[in-house]
């Protein structure tokens, strides 16, 4: 997880990171262990928060050319290819996103993923944070 390497920079900007998951507690624990993430997490199994943030499901985007190219490049470079966890009823079609929300609940930054691997860079998130007072 790229943000882990920027943790001290995020803290210096007065930012706390919260990971939001819709999966089971067991799958969340497995993901956190695999990624060695130290950020706190929250389970939204009903996807109410996902829905409120406008995060959609998309079969089309999961299997689009950009996603196929991403996986092919990862395979060619011996990269890690995410696979659904066995024995977990996960929704592989749920798109994710990244948001910056201030202390009052105002959304300052919105990035809704267009494909499963689509995320803003840590530099983009840090740059956005630097534009807002702590």
How would you describe what is shown here?
By secondary structure, the protein is α+β, with helices and mostly antiparallel strands. The protein has a single domain, classed as Glutaredoxin. Helices cover 35% and strands 13% of the residues. The protein contains six helices and four strands, in the order αβαβαααββα. The strands form two sheets. A two-stranded parallel sheet has the order 1-2. A two-stranded antiparallel sheet has the order 3-4. The longest helix is centred in the middle third of the chain and has 12 residues, at 65-76. The protein starts with 6 loop residues before the first helix and ends with a helix. The model has no long low-confidence stretch (mean pLDDT 83).
Quote the beta fraction: 5-15%
Please, how many domains? 1
Helix/sheet category: alpha+beta
Q: What is the averaged pLDDT score?
A: 83
Low-confidence stretches: none
Keywords for this entry:
single chain, 134 residues, alpha+beta, Glutaredoxin, two-stranded antiparallel ribbon, 6 helices, 35% helix, 13% strand
Give the topology, please.
Elements: H1 7-12, E1 19-21, H2 25-35, E2 41-43, H3 48-52, H4 59-62, H5 65-76, E3 97-101, E4 107-112, H6 122-130
Parallel strand pairs: 1-2
Antiparallel strand pairs: 3-4
């Amino acid at each position: 997880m790229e943000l882990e390497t920027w943790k001290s920079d995020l803290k210096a900007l007065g930012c706390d990171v919260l990971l939001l998951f819709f999966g089971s507690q067991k799958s969340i624990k497995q993901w956190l262990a695999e990624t060695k993430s130290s950020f706190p997490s929250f389970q939204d199994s009903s996807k109410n928060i996902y829905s409120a943030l406008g995060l959609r499901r998309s079969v089309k985007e999961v299997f689009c050319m950009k996603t196929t190219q991403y996986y092919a490049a990862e395979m060619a470079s011996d990269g890690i290819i995410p696979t659904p966890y066995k024995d977990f009823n996960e929704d592989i079609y749920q798109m994710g996103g990244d948001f910056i929300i201030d202390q009052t609940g105002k959304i300052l930054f919105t990035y809704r993923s267009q494909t499963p691997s689509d995320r803003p860079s840590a530099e983009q998130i840090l740059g956005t944070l630097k534009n807002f007072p702590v």
